[in-house]
Design brief:
By secondary structure, this protein is mostly helical. The protein has two domains: about 45 residues, no CATH class; about 160 residues, no CATH class. The chain is built from ten helices and five strands. β2 and β3 form a beta hairpin. The two termini are about 30 Å apart.
Length: about 210
């Protein structure tokens, strides 16, 4: 597997990668954005080829220094296993590099779109009498999203896996989800236990 070790200067105005690519900060295109884009582009051909063990390692590395809710969401997907092989979710993963090591993060906003959660939330808020001021920027961002290229509907054959993915998305990005569904027939016992473990991880801040 090729390696990309990105270095940047102290003011974070320029960067260079061991592969020979590099750049300087430009108006509207900060060096940080360029580094992220370089990671996404150079890892895109690799992501479909990753074995499960490689994907798990890269996903855990991406949240190694993150808050408990980010770790809990990733561990929920890993524990479930189904989504690690699903081509729809594979297209919603974004790669990068950390000191030459491959990282893979989940684009949770794209997952929420694929699940239809964004549209559901917008419809709920539209008919709500109270719209908190803090949600103004969020609503503007959601409303401006393009139609999702990937759709993950709730089907009978994948009901438990889809419900678990909804919980993971809620944990990672704050998208609304109904806790009463924990007791529904949609979640099988194994997935229900995984969700409860994820909630406990957040509650105990670990």
């Amino acid at each position: 597997m090729p390696s990309h070790d990105v270095q940047f200067d102290a003011p974070f105005t320029s960067w260079a990668c061991s592969c020979g690519e590099g750049g300087e900060q430009r108006p509207g295109w900060p060096a940080g954005y360029q580094i992220v884009e370089h990671g996404v582009v150079t890892t895109a051909p690799l992501l479909p080829l990753l074995r499960e063990s490689q994907l798990v390692t890269a996903m855990r590395l991406s949240v190694a220094a993150s808050r408990p809710h980010s770790v809990a969401a990733v561990e929920l997907l890993i524990g479930n296993g189904f989504w690690l092989h699903d081509r729809r979710v594979r297209t919603l993963l974004r790669g990068g590099w950390d000191a030459g090591r491959l990282t893979v993060r989940v684009d949770w906003t794209a997952v929420a779109q694929a699940l239809g959660v964004v549209d559901e939330a917008l419809r709920t808020i539209k008919w709500s009498q109270a719209r908190p001021e803090w949600m103004a920027d969020v609503l503007d961002a959601w409303s401006g999203m393009p139609d999702p290229e990937t759709a993950i509907p709730l089907t009978e054959s994948e009901a438990s896996d889809v419900m678990l993915l909804r919980y993971a998305t809620s944990i990672a990005g704050g998208m609304p989800v109904t806790l009463s569904n924990l007791g529904s027939h949609h979640l099988d016992p194994h997935d229900r236990e995984l969700v409860m473990e994820a909630i406990q991880r957040i509650a105990t801040n670990r």
